[in-house]
Amino acid sequence: MDVESSKAAAMKAASPMKHKRRNVCLGVTAAVILLIFVVLLILGLTVFKPKQTTTTVDSTSISDLKVSLDIARMRVDINISLDVDLSIKNPNKVSAKYKNSSAFLNYKGQVVGEAPIPGGKILADKTKPMNITLTLMADRLLSDSQFFSDVTAGAIPLNTLTKIHAKVSLFNLFKVRVISTTSCDLVVFVSNRTVGDQKCKYKTKL
Ligand SMILES: *[C@@H]1O[C@H](CO)[C@@H](O)[C@H](O)[C@H]1NC(C)=O
Ligand SMILES: *[C@@H]1O[C@H](CO)[C@@H](O)[C@H](O)[C@H]1NC(C)=O
Ligand SMILES: *[C@@H]1O[C@H](CO)[C@@H](O)[C@H](O)[C@H]1NC(C)=O
Ligand SMILES: *[C@@H]1O[C@H](CO)[C@@H](O)[C@H](O)[C@H]1NC(C)=O
User: Fold this and answer.
1) How high is the pLDDT of residue 68?
2) What's the Cα-to-Cα distance from 160 to each of 37, 61, 103, 127, 163, rounded to whole Å?
3) Whose CA is nearest to atom 4 of ligand 4?
4) What kind of fold does domain 54-205 have according to CATH?
5) pLDDT band at 178 (very low <50, low <70, confident <90, very high)
6) CA-to-CA distance for 123 and 20, rounded, in angstroms?
7) Which numbered ligand comes closest to the C-alpha of 190?
8) Which residue in 39, 150, 179, 185 is deepest, having the highest Cβ count within 10 Å?
């Protein structure tokens, strides 16, 4: 009788113990998962926080310049090729991707040249240099009297415009899309074939 009752008591006691152990186990697992989550969140908000990529124009030079003026008919045949040295900086701890885009050459708000910028990837903390050649399509300005007088005066005001769409993503969880626009006003001096007065404006938009 005594033995039986003590066995029963032992069995009753064992069952809550098992429950308790399972609860502790679940609790620890939940805490570990929560901790991993918090660590990822903190990393995502600090070290790996996506930052904007920036595009900078390092220099612009003339690689080709040929002018022929037809004074009698006030027409100008001109070929200008500009070499634009750009660099795109990725300040992030992860790589950034950017889409196919274009660089434009403008004369008084009119597009007179275009060059493709093929899409690509920039590794973490790296700056990617890029050389683009923009060629003026003179046929669009053949009988533009303002252009004719700028060329005869020897100073042609032009503008280069690039727009880069970049994407930075961390574990597909923290994502940033950036559009960085670079617009440079410059003057091409015909007599000495130089680029002067270059003023660039940079804009980034998230
Ligand atoms: C500009 O280039 C075109 C085609 O490449 C050529 O026909 C023209 O003669 C060139 N103009 C000058 C002034 O060299
Ligand atoms: C980007 O341009 C390349 C050629 O320069 C082309 O093969 C590719 O399909 C383009 N990608 C997109 C997403 O348009
Ligand atoms: C771009 O051109 C400059 C000289 O104008 C050269 O030093 C540089 O290496 C070139 N960069 C690339 C990526 O071709
Ligand atoms: C080129 O000529 C323009 C005016 O004709 C002048 O302002 C500029 O300083 C010259 N540039 C160089 C590098 O000589």
Assistant:
1) 86
2) 46, 12, 7, 21, 10
3) 189
4) Immunoglobulin-like (2.60.40)
5) confident
6) 50
7) 4
8) 150
| Per-residue model confidence (pLDDT) at position 206 | 72
Give distance in angstroms: CA of 154 to centre of ligand 4: 10
CB within 8 Å of 154: residues ≥ 6 apart: 189, 190, 191
Distance (Å) of CA 186 to CA 69, 86, 107, 145, 164:
22, 15, 10, 20, 20
Q: How far is CA 106 from the centre of its chain?
A: 22
User: pTM of the full predicted structure?
Assistant: 0.77
Q: Which ligand is nearest to the CA of 154?
A: 4
- Closest-CA residue, ligand 3 atom 10, reads 131
> CB count, 10 Å around CB of 13?
9
Name the residue among 104, 93, 87, 96 with its Cα closest to residue 178.
Answer: 96
